[in-house]
Amino acid sequence: MMTRRFHNVVFADDFFRSPANGLQYHVANRRFLRGFFDSALGRLGLPASEAAPLSEGGRIDVARLMDRLDLPPTPAGWARACIADLSPLAGRDGMPAFGPGCLVIGWGLTPAQQHCIDRSGASYLDIEIDPRRFTEHLHFCARTNDPAIEAALLARRVDEELFWNHASALKGRFARHGAASLFDPRLRVGLFFGQSLVDLSLISGGRTMHPASVIAPLRELAQGVDLLVVKPHPYESALHDLAPIARAIPNVAWTSENSYALLSAANVHFAASLSSSVLTEARYFRKPAHALIRADRNAPEQLPKTCSGWIPVGAELGSMDFMAEACGLDDGQGSGGAVRSFPAWPTTAIDRAFLTRWGLDDQTRGLAEMAELQLERPYLFHPGSPAMSWLSHGWAGFDGEGARSEGELACLVVPLPALSSRSLPLSQMQPHRVEVRIDYRSNAKATSVHAMLDGAVLPGQRVTGSRRRSLVFEMEPAAGRKCLVIQFVVADTARGLGLGLRRKAARPGFTLRKLHVSLRMGRGLISAPPKAAAAAKWSEMSPVRAMARVFRAVVDSARGSAGSH
Questions:
Q1: Do residues 532 and 522 make contact, with C-beta atoms less than 8 angstroms apart?
Q2: DSSP 8-state class, residue 188
Q3: Which helix (H) or strand (E) holds 42?
Q4: Spatial contact of 312 and 129, defined as CB atoms under 8 Å apart
């Protein structure tokens, strides 16, 4: 006979993250929980229900609840609702009252929801995918305010050594199938990992944080390395949130390489982010990690005092024996009187449910080997050319003429030979000339391309044909410059000006055909990049104003911590 600790189960998620607040609601997580636990709960005789917003056919009127909280129905309001006191809303406008004897099984519950459940006398089991996603199979992580559930979780805790072992295996794999260093072994590199624009882990103090709000500490980190390399989130196509980093910090480059290959690189000296889960993973690759914000979701002062830490567990979380123990069976037996002894859950259970590995791709061969540029040699961008290895981010491969750009930003990273004046003959102690030729595939009048070097916009673009542009500039030989990094910002000026909206325009882009670096005497040079103090502001350049609507954060001054996206 069972002693019931719970008389009902409620499945919930962050229902404030809904269309009522101008956000996309992900119903699949709550549906997954319902399906995953349905068998065990049914066999235990526990009735279950779901807490869902009106937009998903549920009873919770999020708009009315926001009004009661005196919060705007916006993403900024949602951020503030994540740490608001929800207790006065219990039982109103479809909000569950919870109460003693209720177990809430949630996916990504906010601090506000956890407090509301805890204060009502109910128990909760908050579940997510464990942030250490480099293991052969995915795991859950869970936390709870219930001592009995915590004990059941701890009894099934994944051994810490499993994560160390899988990280070691990955490092060995990438060492065998890729370059040992990112770009060039002479470079000291720091990594900055981007995140999705809407993410609970970006909420700090009830406000959504952005890279623009952490420029100062990030710049300080960047001063300790040769390059700060930005790795955008693989599922976030928009780069405008990351653009202030490239504009405010001179030694920035971009990469599309695999995150675990990056963490395995010998010349990577730290990993930074606002609060990305990659920072948790970096520890197992022995890389110092720097979280630049204090996320509310994991801040002890924002959580119930009864809340446990995150506990890594396997897919057996949904098994009969776990649920029976969590629900407090007193006779050591499952339903029907049989002693609890169940076969192991399929190791691929979570992988199959989510159909993704979040960065662990068995086909990834590791970091690309990069050729060092030879002075005086012209390079064409075509298959088999060393120049193709310099395409670090924002390129879609070869299009018949050269390297085709893709998206709002493309980056070129070229390892250079030693350029110290001391190593050059006296006659060659002059600025050297970098020549880049860009051919547009789309209409040159409608596509705007601006190049940046050391955080400054490069002047000196000249027309060589209706669809071709050349960029020629100078830079001083310096012992500290180990690579050439050029960032290209691409936009459709017709769209930015509101022109040509009736016709379906091709996506803006350009084709990079040729790169030529040579040492020249000072006479006859075309132009030089502006000094940092005199660098033209993006907002003062009329071509950039035209593309501002496409790439706003590059144009506008770095925004502080904003409450909306």
A1: no
A2: -
A3: helix 28-44
A4: no
Q: What is the spatial distance between Cα 562 and Cα 565, in angstroms, rounded to a whole number?
A: 7
Q: Which residues of 417-446 are buried (b: 16+ CB within 10 A; e: fewer)?
A: eebeeeeeeeeeebbbbbebbbbbbbbbeb
Residues 509, 532: Cα–Cα separation, whole Å:
28
Instruction: For residue 114, give the H/E element and its range.
Output: helix 111-119
211 and 245 Cβ atoms separated by less than 8 Å: yes
Give the whole-angstrom CA distance, residue 376 versus residue 565.
Answer: 47
CB 353 within 8 A of CB 347: no
Q: Please tell me the distance from the alpha carbon of residue 97 to that of residue 59, in angstroms, as a whole number.
A: 13
Burial of 135 by CB count in 10 Å (0-12 exposed, 13-18 middle, 19+ buried)? buried
Among candidate residues 268, 310, 258, the one with its CA nearest the CA of residue 289 = 268
pTM exceeds 0.90: no
Task: Summarize pLDDT for 416-433 with one digit per residue, the tens.
Answer: 887 654 455 545 555 455
CB 545 within 8 A of CB 555: yes
| Residues 6 or more apart in contact with residue 468 via CB below 8 angstroms | 437, 438, 439, 440, 444
Tokens of 332: 């050591």
SS3 readout for 285-301: HCCCEEECCCCHHHCHH
Sequence-separated (6 or more) residues with CB below 8 Å from residue 227: 183, 187, 188, 189, 190, 251, 252, 253, 413, 483, 485
Q: pLDDT digits over 534-562, tens only?
A: 444 443 343 334 334 434 433 343 333 33
Which is nearest to 250 in space by CA: 274, 217, 227? 227
Alpha-carbon distance 118 to 98, whole Å?
9
CA–CA dist 59, 63 (Å, integer): 12
CA–CA gap between residue 229 and residue 188 (Å, rounded): 10
- Give the length of the chain: 565
CA 537-430-187 angle, 5° bins: 65
Listed residue (414, 423, 417) closest to 392, CA to CA: 414
